[in-house]
Specification:
Number of helices of chain B: 16
Strand content of chain A: 25-35%
Order of helices and strands of chain A: EEEHEEHEHHHEHEHEE
Distance between the termini of chain B: 33 Å
Number of domains of chain A: 1
Bound molecules: adenosine-5'-triphosphate, magnesium ion
CATH superfamily of chain A: P-loop containing nucleotide triphosphate hydrolases
Structural class of chain B: alpha+beta
Oligomer: heterodimer
Largest sheet of chain B: 6 strands, mixed, barrel
Structural class of chain A: alpha/beta
Strand content of chain B: 15-25%
Largest interface: A-B, 28 and 21 residues
Number of helices of chain A: 7
Strand order of the largest sheet of chain B: 3-4-9-6-8-7
Mean pLDDT of chain A: 90
Largest sheet of chain A: 6 strands, mixed
Helix content of chain B: 55-70%
CATH architecture of chain A: 3-Layer(aba) Sandwich
Chain lengths: 234, 398
């Protein structure tokens, strides 16, 4: 699909099928998806509502299990990985940004960033805190590090969520309509952040979006329809 | 959460209070019976029946024990009491042993006539096998010991006959009257005792009953009364008399106390169980409210186990706080209750609620509360961990 050596892809999948719903009402959502994502690039997935964009994102992000097909993340074949292995890969390799920020409201911005680092357990407490401040600084919230998450504006919360997705410096960032709840100004701030950080940190960023402006500004646009990719522009 | 916490506190506190009161009263009762009747009583001589012993040996060849048990013959009273005491004193656990001669009499003064039990005691050694000394409420022990015709009577009998120290009474057996002087009045609190027991020198009693050398039983005190039940068989073998430990003599009352303890703690257990149920539903609601947070934690790499532990931990903290405050409240209630004046006579004597301070009650309450509440936490915690993050995220952001 995408030029380059597939063995260098940080995230790739082949022939992924996914069904949703129970036995009586099964929906064939993903109908054989292939994808290769490379570090340092930003990808937009666009397509009509209900075509399976979110489903693909959760499947690639190991939140959901594919019914068919192979997935490889950062050189690891996770097709048949156990729940524990998938959980660990989520922690180390993937940063999620959702349409709703999903911050833990009882905790400060800094603490929200420390939570994934804590689980990773490869940094000392002080280092974790310093890194959290650094990340919050980079999303322009250096002055609000100790604000409770629910005392931040929608745009600020989404920026904290982005910083959190980067907490463990994952090679892959998956964002499902990260600007869906934001006004134009905040949408641009959030997108610019994701874009610049992907370059700076050499990450592959996959953004599902309905916003054509944002899609256009990505390095690649993947068009999806009825559970498969149709074309690819760059 | 506050409700379940309160439940735990209350359950633990009342549980402790119930245990401390029932054991308190039980121990007072035990002290009373030990103080009145001694830990062990040696009574009734027995003799192995040789005939039945031989028969059983012929039939089976080796049925010694059986033959012995079947062939026992009893004779009331203690034979060669001095020898028996000598044998009993050999036991390490024994403090003292003292002879008693007992019999029914009529007691009268010019006011009233009452039935009574005359207890002939050895005035000095009897103090070592009973709490008689502490139980004197009027008169003087010294006068009682000094006066050969002095008697000591119980408070109930004294009330009924309007007797005071220094007054004389007539004790008659087989219509033969003897005059004695009341030198002291005692109160054990055990009504039956205080109503009928009249203590007198054993030689006086022997004169009254015209049984010059006789002993009804030997009363024995022990360093460790708990061991009375174990010591008895060895003692029986040595002295060839029936040995009755207090546990057996007071079986009915002891079982009553046990039942009281079980019933009261079981009913208070229900408070803890209700607190556990409260905990269960509270946690279940929290799990439902926090599905988003749980999913986000899972998406960030927290395992199912991590999620379970978070909720177990939450339950654990609440349980711990509940037990802590339950202990404090329990101790406070126990103390307060022990200050409340209440006059009880009947099987013991007390003027306040009796409580027993024992850490084991606190430990037991803690263990039970911990077990019940933590069990209640496990189910919601498990349910939280089974949540599929994709389902939750799909439902909120798709
Ligand atoms: N739990 C479910 N059971 C059955 N079908 C489902 C379930 N969840 C989603 N679907 C269906 O799966 C399809 C893909 O859903 P998905 O959320 O991936 O779409 P999407 O492309 O992200 O849409 P949108 O742009 O509106 O977010 C839809 O047709 C949806 O109706
Ligand atoms: Mg979607």
């Amino acid at each position: 699909m995408h030029e380059g050596d597939p063995s260098k892809a940080v995230l790739s999948c082949r022939g992924v099928h996914k069904y949703l719903g129970d036995e009586t009402q099964q929906v064939h959502v993903l109908k054989g998806v292939d994808i290769n994502l490379y570090r340092g690039n930003t990808y937009a997935i666009v397509g009509p509502s209900g075509c399976g964009k979110s489903t693909l994102l959760y499947t690639l992000g190991l939140l959901d299990r594919q019914d068919e097909g192979h997935i490889n993340i950062d050189g690891i074949d996770v097709t048949k990985a156990s729940d524990e292995e998938r959980t660990q890969i989520r922690n180390e390799k993937i940063g999620f940004v959702f349409q709703f920020h999903f911050l833990l409201p009882e905790f400060t911005a800094t603490e929200n960033l420390i939570i994934p680092m804590w689980k990773r357990g490869n940094r000392k407490a002080l280092t974790m805190e310093r890194r959290a401040h650094m990340l919050l600084q980079s999303v322009g919230l250096g002055d609000k590090t100790h604000r409770l998450a629910n005392r931040l504006s929608g745009g600020e919360q989404q920026r904290v969520a982005i910083a959190r997705a980067l907490a463990n410096d994952p090679p892959i960032v998956l964002a499902d309509e990260p600007t869906g709840n934001l006004d134009v100004r905040n949408s641009n701030i959030v997108f610019d952040l994701l874009y610049q950080l992907s370059k700076k940190n050499n990450q592959a960023v996959l953004i599902v979006t309905h916003n054509p402006d944002i899609a256009r500004r990505c390095d690649f646009i993947l068009k999806m329809r009825d559970g498969v990719f149709t074309t690819m522009d760059s | 959460m506050i409700m379940s916490l309160t439940g735990i506190v209350l359950g633990v506190a009342l549980f402790i209070l119930a245990l401390s009161m029932t054991t308190g009263f039980e121990q007072l009762f035990i002290k009373t019976v030990l103080g009145a009747n001694g830990a062990v009583r040696v009574q009734d001589k027995f003799q192995e029946n040789l005939v039945s012993y031989q028969i059983s040996q012929q039939e089976t060849g080796n049925q010694f024990e059986f033959g012995r048990a079947a062939g026992r013959k009893y004779r009331p009273g203690v034979e060669h009491a001095d020898k028996v005491i000598e044998g009993i004193m050999e036991f390490k656990n024994v403090i003292a042993a003292s002879k008693v001669l007992r019999g029914g009499v009529e007691v009268s003064n010019n006011f009233k006539e009452e039935p009574g039990q005359l207890y002939g005691i050895e005035k000095d050694t009897h103090l070592l096998v009973s709490d008689l000394e502490e139980q004197i409420v009027f008169g003087s022990l010294l006068e009682f010991q000094r006066n050969p015709t002095g008697v000591m009577i119980g408070s109930v009998l004294a009330d009924r006959m309007l007797l005071e120290p220094g007054e004389s009474i007539i004790i008659s057996e087989a219509n033969e009257p003897y005059r004695f002087i009341v030198e002291a009045i005692y109160e054990t609190g055990y009504r039956e005792i205080d109503r009928e027991r009249i203590f007198v020198d054993i030689n006086q009693a022997r004169t009254v009953f015209k049984r010059p050398h006789e002993t009804s039983y030997v009363q024995v005190s022990l360093f460790d009364p708990e061991k009375a039940d174990d010591d008895r068989f060895m003692m029986e073998a040595v002295v060839q008399h029936i040995v009755a430990p207090w546990q057996e003599r007071e079986k009915v009352w002891l079982q009553f106390f046990k039942a009281l303890r079980v019933i009261s703690s079981a009913s208070l257990l229900s408070i803890i169980i209700i607190a556990g149920l409260g905990m269960y539903s509270t946690l279940a609601i929290i799990v439902m409210e926090k599905t988003r947070e749980i999913s986000i934690l899972r998406s960030m790499g927290y395992t199912r186990k991590d999620v379970t532990n978070i909720f177990i931990w939450q339950g654990f903290i609440v349980t711990l706080i509940g037990i802590g405050f339950g202990w404090l409240t329990g101790a406070f209630l126990t103390y307060t209750i022990s200050r409340i004046p209440i006059r009880i006579r009947g099987i013991f004597s007390t003027d306040t609620f009796v409580v027993d301070w024992s850490f084991s009650h606190y430990l037991l309450a803690a263990v039970i509360a911990f077990f019940i509440v933590m069990t209640a936490c496990i189910l919601p915690a498990r349910r939280a961990s089974r949540l599929e993050p994709a389902d939750v995220v799909r439902g909120t952001s798709g």
